[in-house]
Amino acid sequence: MSETLGFGIVGCGLVSQFHGAAINASEGAELIAACDLNEERLNEFVAKFGGEKAASFEALLSDDRIDVVNVLTPNAYHAQFAIPAMDAGKHVIVEKPPEMTLEKTDAMIEASKRNGVKLAISLQVRFRKPIERVKEAVESGRFGRLLCGDTFMKWFRPTDYYLMDDWRSKREEGAGVTIQHAFHYIDLLYHLMGPVKRVEAKMTNVAHQQVELEDTLLAFLEYENGAFGVVEASTGLWPGTDIRVEINGENGTAIMQGERIATWEFRDEQPEDEAIRQIGSEVIRTAASGAADFAYFEHQHMIDDMIAAIRSDGQPRVTAESARGTLELALAMYRSADEGRPIDLPL
Ligand SMILES: NC(=O)c1ccc[n+]([C@@H]2O[C@H](COP(=O)([O-])OP(=O)(O)OC[C@H]3O[C@@H](n4cnc5c(N)ncnc54)[C@H](O)[C@@H]3O)[C@@H](O)[C@H]2O)c1
Predict the structure, then answer these.
(1) What residues contact 141, with CB distance under 8 A and at least 6 apart?
(2) Ligand 1: centre distance to CA 250 (Å)
(3) Sheet containing 29-35: which strands, arranged edge to edge?
(4) Residue of the nearest CA to atom 33 in ligand 1?
């Protein structure tokens, strides 16, 4: 294997900026080529981040210098690129959500197994330092019995955001606060608290009357482990404030706000706790007020993690199987809101 791994990009829109910057910042990665149906976006991407313009997606797949393909197309158009890429022997990073249906997600998982290649989902917030510490504390049993796991995402996006690209206002293509924005934080609850057995959701539109979709989600969760939780997520609450994730157990409470630890209290105070409370005090931007208002280095963790998984022949940290659980929960929220009743999981 060569010293660096080659990366190819499909889809040069908003999130490609973060992948381009992350690949260029990663020592083990080299940006080889990109493709997009939109010539202008492709030109801009290559001018800014380097790499070649691939003549087509098929040309990207037949390029032997490319080891990993990053699928950065809209939410309902992931599997159609990820599966052929894996069938061509490429490892794949797919942007979140994995897809819009469990069937297409399962088909991607199957393609990765069939071809013996790695498949990671770009849920980069799982790499955030407070989340890593909370996850360790959950796994070591420091919280004791988990009682409550909540997230509050009070963000703002102007209506222009929804009108910028056709797919952003179409639910079947992956628009809406639940699947598009809150997905990261619903995923954190799933990642930290474990599976949900019952969910009840309500969805509404509080601030974007020009588009027909939910800009606000309220959900009540019953976890399999007996804990409860709420999700409150909106892109209609100006000016947008930092995300909160709150975990309460019988022996401790941890709250992440933005990328900082806001509360870290356990009955068994440990010497390292004071340092944990200082995590993230430099305050990075976490997209509360704008779609591109965040830093690329969380995506760099994803790129580095994929490289490490390939080199060690291990699994990437955010497997498609684990993201599938979050997708199932988000889909159950839509079903609950549509049918006006609680939904039991698995679906
Ligand atoms: N991880 C994150 O924090 C994060 C942030 C933003 C977006 N995303 C995800 O990234 C994905 C893309 O979102 P975006 O905001 O960049 O969307 P976008 O609309 O800005 O970009 C998508 C690009 O894909 C291109 N495309 C569509 N069909 C194509 C085809 N057949 N062949 C080649 N190119 C094609 C479009 O021309 C467009 O340039 C979505 O899944 C979204 O949920 C993730």
Answers:
(1) none
(2) 42
(3) 52-53, 29-35, 5-10, 68-71, 91-95, 119-122
(4) 36
What is the residue-wise DSSP string for 325-343? HHHHHHHHHHHHHHHTS-E
Give the residue whose CA is nearest to atom 14 of ligand 1: 14
Q: Does ligand 1 have an atom closer than 6 angstroms to the CB of 99? A: no
Residue 266, strand partner residues: 252
17 C-beta closer than 6 A to ligand 1? no
Q: Where do the domains of the chain lie, and which CATH numbers do they carry?
A: 5-125+297-317 (3.40.50.720), 128-290+326-344 (3.30.360.10)
- Tens of pLDDT, residue by residue over 191-238, are 999 999 999 999 999 999 999 999 999 999 999 999 999 999 999 999
Beta-ladder partners of 244:
152, 257
- β-pairing, 52-53 vs 68-71, is unpaired
- Provide the H-helix boundaries in 88-235: 102-115, 129-139, 159-163, 183-193
Host H or E run for residue 45: helix 39-49
- Is residue 10 lining ligand 1, measured as CB closer than 6 Å? yes
Name the residue at shortest CA distance from atom 7 of ligand 1: 15
Query: What pLDDT digit, counting tens, does each position of 107-129 carry?
Result: 999 999 999 999 999 999 999 99
Closest ligand 1 atom number to CA of residue 168: 19
DSSP character string of 281-327: TT---BSSS-TT-B-THHHHHHHHHHHHHHHHT---SSBHHHHHHHH
pTM above 0.85, yes or no: yes
- Regarding the beta carbon of 11 and ligand 1, being less than 6 Å apart is answered yes
295 lines ligand 1 (CB under 6 A): no
Whole-angstrom distance, CA of residue 240 vs CA of residue 321: 31
15 lines ligand 1 (CB under 6 A): yes
Closest ligand 1 atom to residue 123 Cα is 1
Q: How far apart are the first and last CA of the chain?
A: 42
